[in-house]
Amino acid sequence: MSLLCVVLLFTGCGGESKDVVIYSSMEDYRNADLSQKLKEKFPDFNVKVQQITTGNNAAKIKAEGANTEADIVLALETASYEQIAEYFVPLEGLQTNNYLPDMDNADKRCFTWEKFEGSFIVNTEVLKGKNLPEPKTYEDLLKPEYKGMIVMSNPKTSGTGYMFLNTWVNSMGEDEAFAYVEKLQANVKQFTESGSGPVKMLVQGEAAIGLGMVFQAAEQINQGAPLKVIQPEGGAPYNTTVFGIIKGKETKENVKKVFEYLNTEYFLFDKENYAPGKVIENQQIKIKNYPADLELADMSTITDMELKQKLLDRWNFS
Amino acid sequence: MTKSRTLSLSVKLVLTAFFMVTVFLPIISMFSKINWATIGSIVNTATFGQTVFNSLSVTICATIISVITAYLLAFAINHSRIPCKGALSILITLPMLIPSISHGLGLINLFGENGLLTNLLGIPSNLYGFNGILIGSVMYSFPVAFLMLSDAMKYADETIYEAARVLGIPKGSRFFSVTLPYMKRPLISATFAVFTMVFTDYGVPLSIGGRFVTLPVYLYTEVIGLQDFSRGAFIGLLLLIPAIITFLIDLRKKDNEGMGFASKSIRIERNRLRDILLGLFCVLVIGFVLLVLVSFAIMTFIGKYPYDMSFTLRHIQEVMDKGLGEFFSNSLLISILVALIGTVVGYITAYVTARTESRVVSRILHLTSISSLAIPGIVLGLGYVICFSGSFLYGTIFILVLVNIIHFFSSPYMMAHNAMKKLNPNFEDVGKTLCVGRLRLLRDVFIPNTLDTIAEMFGYFFVNSMITISAVAFLYNTRTMPLAILINQLEGDMMFEAAAFVSMIILLSNILAKIVIAGVKKFCKYRLAK
Amino acid sequence: MEEKLQVSRLIKTYADKTVLNGINFTVHNGEFLSVLGPSGCGKTTLLRILIGIEPFDSGHIQKDGEEISNLPPNARGMGIVFQNYALFPNMSVLQNVMYPLKFQPKLKKNAKSIALDIIEKVGLTEHIGKKPNKLSGGQQQRVAIARTLALSPDIVLFDEPMSALDAANRVALRKEIKEIQAKFGITMIYITHDQEEAFSMSDRVIVMDEGNIVQMDTPYEVYHHPANDYVEQFVTCHLKEKISSIQESVGGVR
């Protein structure tokens, strides 16, 4: 009996060599696809794609420190990355993709993974059913007839949510931005934990307007959901994410191999099919219904870690 | 001191030390983590006050409704002539076989904006927020209250009612002068137990609370999400308060009352109207419960309600791809280990406190072993992560096993303790005079005569380990994640169909386990009677 | 008659209360000795001390001339039948009686035949396969006695064994116990609070009061020549007291 326990204890914490753990902040359907591809590509490895929102991702690694179980971190929002940059190993000597100048990181401890844009996403059926007009500006969202109809993700946990907060701060100034959110939250049905939450709720018909990701909306439109992308006045906010290897884990062969796959084959596949925001030269966009003419908003402070912490400390809505 | 006395004393001391380390040490280290300087800034915000108010308001309302519902059901089972009481009793306790978060999800399935019933009945959905938490919490807690009240009613004495009849006390007054006073203690216990359960649960409000945030959800998001242990520990402190009060009240009650010896079982008068009304009520409640459980099945197999009504195995596939097999086996492994080790430790501890001398040490051990009842799951889990994160236990399946054993320890321990106390007090003396050692007596007399209690203990540990999302929420990692936690993740990603499927798996596993346990108990009874 | 058991100056205190106050008495070989007294007088404690499951403060217990007070219970050649018999509910009559034999290396091999023999002597042969819950009170008592006799003690102690039975049964069982005593030739020390029982069964009776032996003699002597008022009231069921209080309330002559 006790022998069994001892054996199990070790299996519970053992199996080091075969396991690769990826903390990924991508949406569930992308993680599912990645999992599938990893299983096919590396049938002998046991690669675990642990889904975790950006905010929690950084917090967990910070708390676990050098003993973290994560080997690779994927799709972590850039500002959040700054918080835990010390735990990443410099990726010297690794081939990089052909990044656009502003997408190429000076800090060689990570590479840019994607750039995603956000926008108003509406469920046209729900709007029609409730006889509501489509919003055009952020001011519009404050209209009383939208009460309980709006969904946004929580900036504390989600990079998508944060980019909206950031764009308001950039255009209105911090105090004004928070005054705006104070008014907006009366109409918000829910602040979802994950960035993919708003579009999901729209698809379920649980809300009419979401502050969500454009490519996720395009994906759903392609699957038949009655969604529409409406660019807010002032341009679409955007954000970038990065990926890298945790210090100390780069010596493991499997980790190196998996990372290489992520950096090359899967990187291109993901950009073409899931994350069409331009990060490299000659980026192909294979995703249908992706608006080609998105104007981008002023996101000059989006990677500022200190600003992000300040704003999140001030964020009191849930 | 004789050899056996030293042995029993050392066993007691070892056990007491064990519980001190596994129960009190984590809580103390949790308190030490609180950064009191920053707490002031949290408490002073409007949202904090709102959160506390939210928690209190929804908990109080849920408690009242839950206890009344449970009382009516218990009354129906024990004091009326409705048929199929056995089956009804079992159905009433079905909600105890799924995680609390599943209750919220089930309600969303039925009554969400796009819920099965919302669309079917064309009613407006007002589910998210206070209402949803209220209904979900009632569903989650009423079976526990039902069991407590029904148990008390079972031992009610007919002779008191006979006396009341003879004395000419009218039926209505009989309720207030005879029944209610007798039920006062069980009612108080049940009320406090439900209050604590609801107050400290994060599963229901997380899934269905929307903007209505309660304290446990706040703890959950701050700690699990953002790893802010200081804030989390502070909330943990607040959550401890109702739990400790409940514990103390229960303790006083146990001291004061003796074993209720039923001198005569209740004679139930004929009353058609009463039976019809109560029967209807039972059917309504059980029907509602079954509806929620069935919604899991519906959501699992239907494409995308209401857009795509085709039968599909897609959601099952999604979950399998996510690693269902592995999480399921994690859960099974954890639950079986918890059940095995927990039952053994609980049984030995109960034997030592119920059947050996040296009152003082026994009493201390007794109190220490039931004290984990005073600690809500998430608080215990938080304490463990703060206290044991550096140790070799952390990150292994064993810490999950340990925290569950401690979390669920008191009930099975008390089951064993009471069963032991009921056995003839002279067995040990017989052993001494006939040259039979304690260990042999344990094996040949105690265990065979408490087999159904042992089975019950095992079942309790197993079922609760399968559904728990509280203590384990802070302690798992990618490799050790139990199945119930997967529901958390699926819920966070709004994969409601997948979450429904996982809930169903847990439900079916637990039903199976209960059937097996019931079978074992029947077999033991048969063996003993032969 | 030899002295089977000799108890001298036995003292037991518990929480500032003197339970046994320097008890002295002897037990003759083969006799039936009752210890009579109200609850709380110390008789059960005395029994437990004799068999060795209760410690005491000072004094001596000698059996067949040898000091046994430092011997463990199973080495004193004594058996005990408890008030509620303490039969093992999960074992049949045969298994209950065989159980102690299984732990004696010398007797293990013949455990079954030894047990069957004893069971026959107490008249329970047709019940050997039954579990205690299928037996009557009197039958259970006989099983308890049989189990005790398995290790061949020469003294058997009884702790109010009839208190759980109704009156009719008790009278029948008194006869059976005496028969068993005769068959096995054992000395019996019998505790009871029922004076009728003590007097009808015993060779000698000890009357106890608050830790002291007040009188020890044959039943005849105790009844006709009570040592003091206490004894007199006790053995006559406080008859005089009851009569005078009835007279008082009825207003009769005092």
Short description:
The complex is a heterotrimer of chains A (318), B (530) and C (254). Chain A is of the alpha/beta class.
- Terminus-to-terminus distance of chain C: 48 Å
CATH hierarchy, class of the largest domain in chain A: Alpha Beta
> CATH superfamily of the domain at 1-77 and 192-254 in chain C, called what?
P-loop containing nucleotide triphosphate hydrolases
Tally of DSSP β-strands of chain A: 9
Rg over alpha carbons of chain A: 20 Å
Unreliable segments of 5+ consecutive residues of chain A: 10-16
SSE pattern of chain C: EEEHEEEHHHEHEHEEHHH
Residue share in helices of chain C? Answer: 25-40%
Q: How many H/I helical runs of chain A?
A: 12
Helical percent range of chain A?
25-40%
Along the chain, the helix and strand elements of chain A come as HEHEHEHEHEHHEHEHEEHHH
What is the makeup of the main sheet of chain C?
A: 6 strands, mixed
Just name the CATH architecture of the domain at 1-77 and 192-254 in chain C. Answer: 3-Layer(aba) Sandwich
What does this structure look like?
The complex is a heterotrimer of chains A (318), B (530) and C (254). With 318 residues, chain A is an alpha/beta fold. Chain A has two domains: 14-114 and 240-273, Periplasmic binding protein-like II (D-Maltodextrin-Binding Protein, domain 2, 3-Layer(aba) Sandwich); 116-238 and 292-314, D-Maltodextrin-Binding Protein, domain 2 (3-Layer(aba) Sandwich), CATH 3.40.190.10. Chain A contains twelve helices and nine strands. Chain A has helices at residues 2-13, 28-41, 54-64, 78-84, 124-129, 159-172, 174-184, 197-204, 214-222, 253-263, 265-273, 305-314; strands spanning 19-24, 46-51, 72-77, 111-123, 150-153, 188-192, 209-213, 227-230, 238-245. In chain A, α3 (54-64) runs parallel beside α4 (78-84). The model of chain A is unreliable at 10-16 (pLDDT under 50). Chain B is mainly α and 530 residues long. Chain B has two domains: 1-24 and 321-530, MetI-like (MetI-like fold), CATH 1.10.3720; 59-213 and 270-306, MetI-like (MetI-like fold), CATH 1.10.3720.10. Chain B has a two-stranded antiparallel ribbon. In chain B, a hairpin with a 3-residue loop joins β1 (302-304) and β2. The model of chain C has no long low-confidence stretch (mean pLDDT 88). In chain C, strands 6-7-8-3-9-10 form a six-stranded mixed beta sheet, sandwiched between helices. In chain C, 35% of the residues lie in helices and 25% in strands. Chain C starts with a strand and ends with a helix. Chain C is built from nine helices and ten strands. Chain C is an alpha/beta fold and 254 residues long. The chains are: A alpha/beta (318), B mainly alpha (530), C alpha/beta (254). Chains in contact: A-B, B-C. The interface between A and B is large, with 48 and 41 residues.
